[in-house]
């Protein structure tokens, strides 16, 4: 296998296609990672995780953090070894060289981003209506969600620098909401009103053992940890990725992991598990219990709006860069690799992913009673955990590529451990996932196979 050298800096030659602009330093990259991990998951799933394991809701978040940290080491070795856009699909393609496998990985990661962003846009519309006290129907909510996606499209077309700067503001808002939960809960706990006995109490569904319940809760909690992998798709727009990525990845994961564990401990110490699990806005319930006079009920919908908006923005950034990278590698149609001559953004990939998101939002909105967050969140983690297993395997395979590029090394044990843990959380008999998540993932992958077949047939006709 040929050695890979770092991408050359952009050359001001009118005959060359414009390269992506390197605008992300350590600060912006760290905020990108934190902002991508924080968001819809922790705001919406804390109660459902508690419903699986009881008061020990912190444990699934801690386990999910460990699994994410192990896999992040594999990502760091690969992104510093091959600092190019496309992420997991690029690594799997280099390791196994199977176009159908590469396409499915690309499609799975892209779908996870678009699905997450679509769910976030729907949540944004619902929170906007709640925050302003609008009594509107499903059709108006759908139009708000689609309008929000057009706004995300405009921001992404404007440029990654502008997108990431907006991410800084949105990250600060969503982080402030979580810190608000922790601080107000801390005052409640300091007053001796909390029940810490619930924090170590396991209350599992009657049809599940403690171990299976923890596995099911971890599979759900992992949705709150995903996002760290999106940053590798920004490698071509990051300054000195070999030096910056490891420090910022570990720092971002550490910060979010600590916040998640603290929020989950505070939640179950302040609110009884049954009440928490039944609440559609669990963090609002926590603050209302800890400080009944605090106007969090009016404030939280707007904080949630910013949180899910941030998730949608970063997921659409990831999806468009993924398609751009695959178009550049020749795995997907080459028009997806087009870069705007002046803005130097992958405009074709941005428009394409936005169209897909619009179709998905419309489809999901046909049944407003569907448990969108839990099903799509679980499906997102299911798809990504399967991809993570392949990424961990790719690290081992690509060790034979003795590149001279300075890069991070994940060691021998972590990639093996990452493969095993990711597969454990994917398989139905060990993860405790509901069947609906596998059905959604199966339909998405079937669509991917059809599209791959069309792409392969087009290439074959072009050669004849």
Automatic annotation (TrEMBL):
Superkingdom of origin: Bacteria
InterPro entries listed in its UniProt record: AA/rel_permease1, APC_superfamily
Pfam families: AA_permease_2
Keyword Amino-acid biosynthesis on entry: no
Compartments reported by the entry: Cell membrane
Membrane topology qualifier: Multi-pass membrane protein
Membrane spanning residue stretches: 28-46, 58-79, 100-120, 140-157, 169-190, 210-228, 249-279, 299-324, 345-366, 372-398, 410-428, 440-458
Alphabetic keyword roster: Cell membrane, Membrane, Transmembrane, Transmembrane helix
Name of the protein in its database record: APC family permease
Species assigned in the record: Nonomuraea rosea
Taxonomic placement: Bacteria, Bacillati, Actinomycetota, Actinomycetes, Streptosporangiales
